[in-house]
Amino acid sequence: MAYDEQFAARVRGALAGESEVREVKMFGGLAFMVDGAMAVCVSTGGGALLVRVSPARDAELVRAAGARRAEMGAGRSMGEGWIAVDDAAVAGDGLRSWLDAALEREGRRGEGG
Question: Which domain holds residue 53?
Protein backbone atom coordinates (compact mmCIF):
# COMPACT_ATOMS: atom_id res chain seq x y z
CA MET A 1 0.00 0.00 0.00
CA ALA A 2 1.09 3.60 -0.54
CA TYR A 3 0.83 4.57 3.12
CA ASP A 4 2.53 3.49 6.36
CA GLU A 5 0.20 0.89 7.85
CA GLN A 6 1.77 1.12 11.33
CA PHE A 7 1.25 4.86 11.35
CA ALA A 8 -2.33 4.38 10.13
CA ALA A 9 -2.87 2.05 13.09
CA ARG A 10 -1.61 4.81 15.44
CA VAL A 11 -4.04 7.30 13.92
CA ARG A 12 -6.86 4.74 14.08
CA GLY A 13 -6.17 4.14 17.77
CA ALA A 14 -6.00 7.86 18.54
CA LEU A 15 -9.38 8.42 16.85
CA ALA A 16 -11.03 5.38 18.47
CA GLY A 17 -13.04 7.53 20.89
CA GLU A 18 -14.56 9.72 18.16
CA SER A 19 -18.00 9.03 16.76
CA GLU A 20 -18.54 8.18 13.11
CA VAL A 21 -14.96 7.54 11.99
CA ARG A 22 -14.48 5.77 8.70
CA GLU A 23 -11.49 5.15 6.47
CA VAL A 24 -11.36 5.94 2.77
CA LYS A 25 -8.50 5.46 0.32
CA MET A 26 -7.73 8.83 -1.27
CA PHE A 27 -4.84 11.18 -2.01
CA GLY A 28 -2.59 8.14 -2.45
CA GLY A 29 -3.10 7.16 1.17
CA LEU A 30 -5.71 6.40 3.79
CA ALA A 31 -8.01 9.24 4.85
CA PHE A 32 -9.81 9.27 8.18
CA MET A 33 -13.25 10.79 7.91
CA VAL A 34 -14.87 12.09 11.10
CA ASP A 35 -18.59 12.84 10.94
CA GLY A 36 -18.45 12.63 7.15
CA ALA A 37 -15.56 15.06 6.57
CA MET A 38 -11.89 14.33 6.04
CA ALA A 39 -9.84 15.14 9.13
CA VAL A 40 -6.45 13.63 8.25
CA CYS A 41 -4.85 11.39 5.65
CA VAL A 42 -1.90 9.06 6.22
CA SER A 43 0.24 9.22 3.09
CA THR A 44 3.68 8.99 1.57
CA GLY A 45 2.99 11.93 -0.73
CA GLY A 46 5.31 14.56 0.73
CA GLY A 47 4.48 14.23 4.41
CA ALA A 48 3.51 11.65 6.98
CA LEU A 49 0.12 13.25 7.52
CA LEU A 50 -2.16 15.52 5.52
CA VAL A 51 -4.23 17.57 7.95
CA ARG A 52 -7.36 19.61 7.20
CA VAL A 53 -7.46 22.57 9.59
CA SER A 54 -9.70 25.54 10.29
CA PRO A 55 -8.92 28.61 8.17
CA ALA A 56 -8.86 30.57 11.45
CA ARG A 57 -5.79 28.61 12.60
CA ASP A 58 -4.16 27.92 9.24
CA ALA A 59 -1.51 30.69 9.36
CA GLU A 60 -0.45 29.67 12.86
CA LEU A 61 -0.35 25.92 12.18
CA VAL A 62 1.43 26.06 8.82
CA ARG A 63 4.37 27.77 10.61
CA ALA A 64 4.70 24.94 13.17
CA ALA A 65 7.87 22.84 13.14
CA GLY A 66 7.61 20.10 10.50
CA ALA A 67 4.54 21.62 8.83
CA ARG A 68 4.13 23.17 5.40
CA ARG A 69 1.42 23.97 2.87
CA ALA A 70 0.24 20.73 1.30
CA GLU A 71 0.67 20.33 -2.43
CA MET A 72 -1.24 18.26 -4.95
CA GLY A 73 1.77 17.66 -7.16
CA ALA A 74 4.96 19.68 -7.29
CA GLY A 75 4.30 23.39 -6.98
CA ARG A 76 0.49 23.04 -6.87
CA SER A 77 -0.62 24.29 -3.44
CA MET A 78 -3.79 22.78 -2.02
CA GLY A 79 -4.46 26.16 -0.41
CA GLU A 80 -5.44 27.39 2.99
CA GLY A 81 -6.54 24.74 5.45
CA TRP A 82 -4.44 21.92 3.98
CA ILE A 83 -1.19 21.19 5.84
CA ALA A 84 1.38 18.44 5.27
CA VAL A 85 3.15 17.35 8.43
CA ASP A 86 6.42 15.39 8.48
CA ASP A 87 7.30 12.29 10.52
CA ALA A 88 9.10 14.16 13.30
CA ALA A 89 6.11 16.44 13.91
CA VAL A 90 3.78 13.48 14.55
CA ALA A 91 6.18 11.51 16.75
CA GLY A 92 5.04 10.96 20.32
CA ASP A 93 2.43 13.47 21.50
CA GLY A 94 2.75 15.49 18.29
CA LEU A 95 0.16 13.28 16.61
CA ARG A 96 -2.46 14.17 19.23
CA SER A 97 -2.01 17.90 18.73
CA TRP A 98 -2.43 17.59 14.94
CA LEU A 99 -5.50 15.38 15.33
CA ASP A 100 -6.97 17.93 17.74
CA ALA A 101 -6.34 20.70 15.18
CA ALA A 102 -8.18 18.66 12.55
CA LEU A 103 -11.07 17.94 14.91
CA GLU A 104 -11.37 21.66 15.78
CA ARG A 105 -12.28 22.23 12.15
CA GLU A 106 -15.18 19.84 12.60
CA GLY A 107 -16.32 21.67 15.74
CA ARG A 108 -15.38 18.71 17.93
CA ARG A 109 -12.73 20.61 19.93
CA GLY A 110 -12.61 24.17 21.22
CA GLU A 111 -10.74 26.65 19.02
CA GLY A 112 -7.17 27.12 20.14
CA GLY A 113 -7.01 24.14 22.48
Answer: 5-105
CATH classification at residue 43: 3.90.1150.30
Please say whether the beta carbons of 7 and 42 come within 8 A: yes
Dist CA 76 CA 111 (whole Å): 28
Domain for residue 61, yes or no? yes
- Parallel, antiparallel or unpaired: strands 29-34 and 21-26: antiparallel
Q: What counts of helices (H) and strands (E) characterise the chain?
A: 3, 6
pLDDT tens-place string over residues 18-49: 989 999 998 788 999 999 999 999 986 556 89
Instruction: Answer whether 43's CB lies under 8 Å from 29's CB.
Output: yes
